[in-house]
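User: Can you recover a sequence for this backbone? Please restate the input before giving your answer.

Assistant: Of course. Working from this structure:
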């Protein structure tokens, strides 16, 4: 049941219409959704703040690419295939932790 951009819906109906309802919340066509189970409210949802919904160029979310100019987390010359755990016998003084 919809009352002036507020929706009260049963959990089973919400499950069937979840993606549509979330799209309507994101578009701010709904201001509040109350999900009920056996007639009692179990969850209340609202739209995100307007600044969260803003999109960057290309239709991506505003936070998309926020790590673009950050330094790499792993050195660029790191040899992913060359690194292995040394065998306990191969390194003097290294004991096998599993024996």
């Amino acid at each position: 049941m919809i009352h002036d951009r507020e929706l009260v819906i049963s959990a089973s109906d919400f499950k069937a219409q979840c993606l549509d309802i979330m799209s309507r919340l994101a578009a701010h066509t709904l201001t509040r959704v109350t999900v009920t189970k056996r007639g009692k409210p179990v969850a209340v949802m609202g739209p995100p703040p307007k600044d969260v919904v803003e999109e960057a160029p290309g239709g991506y979310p505003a936070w998309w690419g926020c790590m673009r100019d950050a330094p790499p987390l792993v050195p660029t010359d790191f040899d992913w295939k060359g690194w292995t755990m040394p065998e306990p016998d191969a390194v003097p003084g290294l004991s096998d932790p599993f024996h």
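That completes the design. Helices lie at 11-26, 50-53.
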